[in-house]
Amino acid sequence: MSNPPWKPLFLTHIETLKPPTFTLATTTTVPPGYPSLNPFHDPQIQPSSHPPTPRCRTMIYRGLLTSLPPNPQNPLSDHNPPLYTSHLPTFTTDSRMTKTSELLSTSKPGGSMGTSAGEYVEAMFWIESTQNQWRMRGRTYLLAEDDVNDTPAITDVLERYLVPQNTGIPSEGEEKTEWTWKKEVQMHFGNMTPALRGSFANPPPGTPVSLGDNGSVVKAAARRNFRVGVVVPEVVERLDLKEDDAKARRWVYWIEDGKWKVQETWP
Description:
The protein has a single domain (7-36, 45-203, 217-265), classed as Electron Transport, Fmn-binding Protein, Chain A (Pnp Oxidase, Chain A, Roll), CATH 2.30.110. Strands 1, 2, 4, 5, 6, 8, 9 and 10 form an 8-stranded antiparallel sheet that branches. Strands 3-7 form a two-stranded antiparallel sheet. β9 (249-256) and β10 (259-265) form a beta hairpin. 18% of the residues lie in helices and 30% in strands. It starts with 6 loop residues before the first helix and ends with a strand. By secondary structure, it is α+β, with helices and mostly antiparallel strands. The protein has 7 helices and 10 strands. The longest helix has 10 residues, at 181-190. It holds the Pfam family Pyridox_oxase_2. This is Pyridoxamine 5'-phosphate oxidase-domain-containing protein.
């Protein structure tokens, strides 16, 4: 699939967003009043199934898949070469977080869950400088360093959206010996600050501070806990509020027969 028509303007807008935050909306079947403080060691009985309810979180946008710029403050010895671009937004998360269980539609998060296909989400970006709102709806995928090179059921899907640099046309059978999915995950890990990388060695989210930090155990699992989240947009909406209410407009983009369509509408 070639690059979509909305991508250039989205990238122009996102460059003005400091810090590059967005809202990620998921759903859960855990009752709204249930305090999931520690999904790993919570002694409470797990609640019964409940109709889906929404959850929203502020996330950091980590660039488009395969287009993460190298960070000179945290260089890697072996980066992926810049062979591809894509239009798939990325974020990072800890496999032990409750958010992970919502993305994967499981009862509990867990570090043993590697590269996986997730549920549908909506990502919303508010660009204050341009008074534009971007909403992207699509399926998520979580990539783990340990097994991402060995999960073709996931990576084959994502490869459909990779576009060779400077051509705009997907390749067929192009040599990929220098480019690997594992390196892509490693680049995201290396691009974070040392403090943020170290946070993946903390005790499981929700663990009471009073229980202490078994550092020798959890620090060895820091990279194993790290996940790169990928959103594959199927519908993209842009709402432009820069003008007065009488001129406000909304554009809806969607995929039809493998091609992006667009319709301008009233908000």
